[in-house]
Structure formats: C-alpha cells, structure tokens
Recover the amino acids of this structure.
C-alpha cells in the first residue's frame, strides 16, 4: 500500500522574463490500486504538476510538500524519485540518439531494481510486455524515441512502466495524439499494469475519450493551477458535454 | 630543388616539395596553422636529434631502411610533402613502416600495427598499399608515450577495399602531428577511421584523391577532448575523377575549460569530377561550459553536374532534457551522461565491423569517460 500525498503545492517556472507561478495550492492524494484523473484545459498547469512530481529542474517548488509513503519527495533527485517508486509517462518523450531501446530498458530496470535482471528471464519479460502492447520485436533495436511515431512513443512509455513496476504512475496526456486503435492498446496496457501491480495511477488528460477505457475512481478538474472541482466518473461526462467553459474564469485567475 | 606548383584551388596546399628548405616555418598566422598552438610545436619545425617510428615485422608488415626505399607507394599516390613537418619526416625518417597487402588477397584477420618511437620526438614514415582486388583492415595503434611527427601514404589499388583505423590513445603528455595522404583507385573503397582520445596535441591533416572513376572514400572520426587537450582534424578531399563518392563524418565530445578541437572539412570538386557524391558532417557535443570547438566546412564546386554535394556542422550543448528523461527512469545522472556520450558516437563506431575491434574502441572511449561500471551489463545485452 503506497500513498503519494501532495499538499498545498505551489510551483513556479523560471524564465528570462522572471519567475511565473503556475501551481497555486494543489492538494491531491494518489493511493495504490486507485486511479485519480486530473482533467483541465490547456495552460491550466496540469502537465506542470506531472513534471514537478518527477522533479524537472525547470520548476521551483515555492510552497507545500510532496511525500511518498511519508518520505519527502521534494528532497530527492530525479533518479531517486524513480527508484523510490514514481514513474512519469511523458507527453513528449525525449529522443536519445545512439541508445537502443533494449539497452535503455535494461539499464533502467537495473537502476530501479538495484541489480541487473537475469538475462534469460529478462528477455522473456520484455517480449511479453511488448507483445501486450502489440509492439514488434525489432522495436527494441531502435534508438530511444528516435523517429518514433506518436503512437510508438506512447506505447514505449507504457512498456517502460510495465517493466519498471512503479508504486505510483503519472500518465501525462498519454492519450493525446493517439488514434482509436492505439488508444485502446495503450489503455489496456495501463489497466493490465494496474491489475497486476496494484499501483496507483494519476491520469492527466485534456480529453474525456481515454476515460472510456480507463475508469477513474476520482475525477479532478484542474484550472488556474489548482484543483477546482472533484467528483466521481460522472464528472467526466459533464465535462464531455459542457467542456471547460465554466472554469474559464478560474483559468484566468 | 624544384618547387612544384599546386593546382589553382584555394583549398589545395600552396607548396609541394619534399625538401624542408622549400617550406616556411609556420608562425600561426598562416591559414592552415591559424588554429594550431604552434608555440608548443617548435621542435616539430626543425631537424634535431630525432628517432624513427618502428613496428614489429609480421606477415604484411616490414621495416625498410629509408635509403633503400624506392617508394612505389608514394609514386602511385603522387605524394609530395605539403608542409614543413611532413617534409622533415619524409627527409629524416631513417626507416619506413611498410604495410603491404598483396593483390587479390582477402585478409580475414585484422592487421595490427603497434607503433613505437625511440626518442622523445620521432619521425614516422608509414606506407600502406592494398593491391588490386585485395581486402583488409589495418589498425595503427598510436598509443606510444613519445611524440611523433609523421606521414602515412596510402595507395588503394583498383577495386581493393581497405579499412585503416588509427587509434590515438597515448598519455596526456604526447604530441602527434600527422599528415595522411590516400589515393583511391578505380572502383576501390577506402574507410579511414580516426579515434583520438589521448595525447596533449593531436594535429591530423588527412588528404584524399582518386586515381580513377568509381572510387569511394569514407573518412570517419570520433574524438574526445578534455582538460587541456588540443585536437585538430583537417580534411581535404580532392574530387579529381568522375563518379566517385566521399563521405566525411567527424564527431567530437569536449569537456573542461581548456579543451579545444578544430575540424576543417575541405572538399574540392573539379570540373572533370562529374557524377560524384560528397557529404561531410561535423558534430560537436559540449559536455560543460568552457571548451572551444572550431568547425569550418568548405565545399568548392567547379561543376554542377554532381549527384549530390552537401555539408553540415553543428556544435551543441549537452541536452538537459535527455538527462531528465534518463534520470526519470532511475538512471543516475553520471550514468545518464555516459550513455548519451556513448550514444553520440554510435554511428561512427558502428562502422567498425569487426566485433572485437569495436569492443576495444568502445572500451577505450568508456575508460576516458569513466564508464567501466556498466560496460559489462551493456555488452551482455548486445550479445
């Protein structure tokens, strides 16, 4: 049983123009076996929330706390957070030229697990995970995210998640840019991962479409850098029909 | 002594002569020396007490006293010294390291040539010939502790396929100034790989010309400069024959405030060189603030009747987003940096087709970037 506890989180981005506050008091709890959806319009800061949890150096936390099972996440480096059991499936996965997917996966798994997985079982493990996401075996020989289509990038993120088995996974707009078939495959991958591992999932999305495949326990509406409304899955249906317009004022705030 | 006038191109050498007296002493203001720390190379410009570069004889390697050398290789390659250090080496080297692959011979094993010097500064004279229809890979291991001023003249005869890998991996005190001249015969192919890791100063002038149509020359380089290392790579491809191909790819990783690398890529496509393909690329990765990478591609076209001609040069900072991505998968910052650097060189290293040789080169690069720890794990995956 794991708990990611976010309390009164304020964070800013520092640019040449100065410091701009983006997160303005986020309170959120993600627990094992549960799925929290965070939905919000463009520019609401929901992706920033994902990056701040993962520890992207571009953002500075100015107030509040993040803990994982009581441990101070903000005190950890990016890799320490991953080894503590956090995973961020990125909206825009980064190309790493010259590093093959197979080397990358094995190096990551070795780092997370603390020892190199036995080669024979590892190969089987990777094959099975790839088959589950309908990924061709040749994929492993390609360089990380280099020349990947949008769908391939997202499958690759979910592949990493299933192999690294985090306690809490954050999916940052994993559904964006996917066609219906790819969305179904990716969503099934997420559901299978959660059933197998019992992990907690923080699902960040702009669209309600993915919620037809992944059923959230709680839906949070994110606007103006904080959660402005919380409800059950039915809240997603309201958003689907009404859009984010009624939160527009809050976005400007 | 007669001075041979070079062809009228801005990119070609101005003076061609084996007589050191015909060459001016470089002062650092000359175009071809303007990046080089000539003050640290004073002894390379005068003839003093020098040794000669030697190698142990083997099936394809012989040591020939310089006075006995008729230099059929130089004749075949039309080679004449084009600067003072190369003229001094040509004149004063007491012996020639000859690597000769007989015609029609396909050599499966790599021909490893371990080069050594006897004095603090040594003249090197190396000749490599690949007979018609032959096939071979030659490795020149330049990891001696002493300094070398040398020439390598290579003749690749018709339809031969020759790979020469030069490994500059000496201690941080050693200085290397080399001039390479390669002639690529009709339908022949030459792959030259320069791996520069050690040394305090490495200056490499690499010239290629063709002796017939249909030849292919690929010049690749991977270099790693840190601390106060200076490395200079000057490429000159003379497209003097039709339907030939040249491909130049040099990649460098630099770290430390004083590291300095120079890449000059000159390609001259003559009027008669129709139907050629040429491409040259230099990429430099700055691992931190401070190092300096100069990169100057020059393409001179006398004919528009080519298949393709292009060049590219880019020097960039280490990408922090790559670091974040790898770290977010639990990989430590140090290991993430090493993975990115290794990945940066992969397309050059993939050209080393012999698996043992490639492993050796990768191991040396990894040692230089302090990455032994994960080597075993990664090769296990490769296997």
């Amino acid at each position: 049983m794991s708990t990611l506890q976010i309390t009164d989180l304020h964070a800013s981005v520092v640019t040449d123009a100065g410091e701009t506050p983006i997160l303005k008091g986020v309170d959120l709890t993600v627990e094992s076996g549960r799925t929290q959806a965070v939905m919000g319009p463009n520019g609401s800061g929901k992706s920033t929330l994902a990056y701040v949890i993962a520890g992207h150096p571009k953002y500075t936390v100015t107030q509040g706390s993040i803990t994982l099972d009581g441990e101070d996440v903000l005190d950890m480096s990016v890799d320490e957070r991953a080894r503590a059991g956090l995973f961020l499936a990125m909206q825009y996965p980064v190309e790493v030229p010259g590093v093959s997917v197979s080397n990358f996966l094995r190096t990551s798994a070795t780092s997370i697990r603390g020892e190199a997985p036995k080669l024979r079982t590892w190969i089987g493990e990777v094959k099975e995970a790839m088959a589950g996401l309908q990924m061709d075996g040749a994929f492993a020989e390609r360089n990380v995210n280099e020349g990947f289509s949008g769908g391939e990038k997202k499958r690759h993120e979910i592949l990493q998640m299933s192999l690294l088995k985090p306690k809490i996974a954050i999916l940052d707009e994993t559904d964006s840019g996917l066609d219906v078939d790819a969305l179904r495959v990716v969503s099934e991958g997420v559901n299978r991962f959660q059933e197998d591992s019992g992990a907690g999932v923080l699902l960040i999305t702009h669209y309600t479409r993915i919620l037809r495949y992944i059923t959230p326990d709680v839906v949070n509406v994110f606007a103006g850098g904080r959660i402005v409304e919380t409800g059950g899955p039915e809240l997603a249906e309201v958003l689907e029909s009404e859009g984010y317009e009624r939160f527009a004022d809050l976005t400007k705030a | 002594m007669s001075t041979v006038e070079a062809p009228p191109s801005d990119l070609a050498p101005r003076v061609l002569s084996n007589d050191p007296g015909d060459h001016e002493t470089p002062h650092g203001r000359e175009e071809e020396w303007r990046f080089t720390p000539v003050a640290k190379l004073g002894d390379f410009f005068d003839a003093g007490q020098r040794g000669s570069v030697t190698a142990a004889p083997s099936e394809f390697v012989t040591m020939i006293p310089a006075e006995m050398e008729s230099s059929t290789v130089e004749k075949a390659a039309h080679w004449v010294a084009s600067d003072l250090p190369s003229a001094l080496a040509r004149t004063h080297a007491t012996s020639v390291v000859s690597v000769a692959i007989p015609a029609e011979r396909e050599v499966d094993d790599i021909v490893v040539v371990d080069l050594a010097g006897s004095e603090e500064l040594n003249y090197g004279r190396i000749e490599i010939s690949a007979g018609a229809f032959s096939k071979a890979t030659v490795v020149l291991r330049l990891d001696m502790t002493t300094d070398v001023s040398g020439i390598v003249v290579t003749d690749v005869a018709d339809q031969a396929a020759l790979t020469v890998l030069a490994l500059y991996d000496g201690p941080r005190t050693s200085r290397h100034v080399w001039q390479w001249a390669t002639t690529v015969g009709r339908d022949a192919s030459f792959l030259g790989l320069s791996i520069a890791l050690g040394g305090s100063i490495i200056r490499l002038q690499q010239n290629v010309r063709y002796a017939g149509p249909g030849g292919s020359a690929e010049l690749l380089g991977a270099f790693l400069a840190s601390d106060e290392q200076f490395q200079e790579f000057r490429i000159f491809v003379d497209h003097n024959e039709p339907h030939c191909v040249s491909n130049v790819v040099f990649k460098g990783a630099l770290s430390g405030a004083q590291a300095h690398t120079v890449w000059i890529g000159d390609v001259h496509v003559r009027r008669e060189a129709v139907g050629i393909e040429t491409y040259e690329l230099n990429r430099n990765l700055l691992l931190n603030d401070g190092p300096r990478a100069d990169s100057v591609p020059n393409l001179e076209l006398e004919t528009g009747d080519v298949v393709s001609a292009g060049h590219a040069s880019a020097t960039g900072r280490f990408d922090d987003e790559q670091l974040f991505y790898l770290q977010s998968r639990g990989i430590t910052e140090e290991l993430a940096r090493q993975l990115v650097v290794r990945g940066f060189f992969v397309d050059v290293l993939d050209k080393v087709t012999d698996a043992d040789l490639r492993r050796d080169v990768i191991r040396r690069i990894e040692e230089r970037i302090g990455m032994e720890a994960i080597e075993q794990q990664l090769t296990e995956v490769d296997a």
About this structure: The radius of gyration of chain B is 20 Å. Residues 333-349 of chain B form the longest helix (17 residues).
